Amino acid sequence: MYSSLILDANILIRAVLGQKVRDYLLKFSSKLDFFTPDTCIKETEKYLPILFEKRGISSKLPLEVFFNIKCLLQIIDKNVYQERAIEARLRMKNRDIKDWPIVASALLFNCPIWTEDKDFFGIGLPVWTTDRIHLFFNEITGC
Fold first, then answer.
1. Using CA atoms, how far apart are residues 102 and 35, in angstroms rounded to an integer?
2. Phi, psi of 112 (to 5 degrees)
3. CATH number (domain holding residue 112)
4. What is this structure's pTM?
5. What is the tens place of the pLDDT at every residue in 21-72?
6. In three state form, how does the secondary structure of 21-61 look?
7. How many domains does the chain contain in total?
8. Which residues make Cβ contacts (< 8 Å) with residue 117, sequence separation at least 6?
9. Which of 24, 49, 54, 105 suits 18 as a labelling partner, its CA being 20 to 30 A distant?
10. Strand ordering across the sheet containing 4-7
């Protein structure tokens, strides 16, 4: 039974942009560990302002929301997940290789990945998307 999840950057962005993911994080943060590699934090911080700039909206509030969301996460430093880098890169071969830290983190903590990125399917790890993550939460918490 899993007691944690690895979150991809696209899930972090969804937590800022929409209510559903943010509600899940708030509801289950006391029952589960939400991990994300440092690269996902950097990616989210890079793309949030760009997304809002395209909409003609200030990114100040979304970055404040993201700051609060980060308090619910355990951010994994490269020095920690690096030990699984070779295996992770092999699993992501012929896919988006820059996502290897997510795979390495999942291997290290033996837990599923929550993402919307189809590149993670078929790499030999459990993967959940937002439209099905409620099944994972129900299984884990009985809620």
1. 9
2. -75, 165
3. 3.40.50.1010
4. 0.94
5. 999 999 999 999 999 999 999 999 999 999 988 888 888 888 899 999 999 9
6. HHHHHHHHCCCCEEEEEHHHHHHHHHHHHHHHHHCCCCCHH
7. 1
8. 8, 10, 96, 99
9. 105
10. 73-76, 33-37, 4-7, 113-114, 127-128
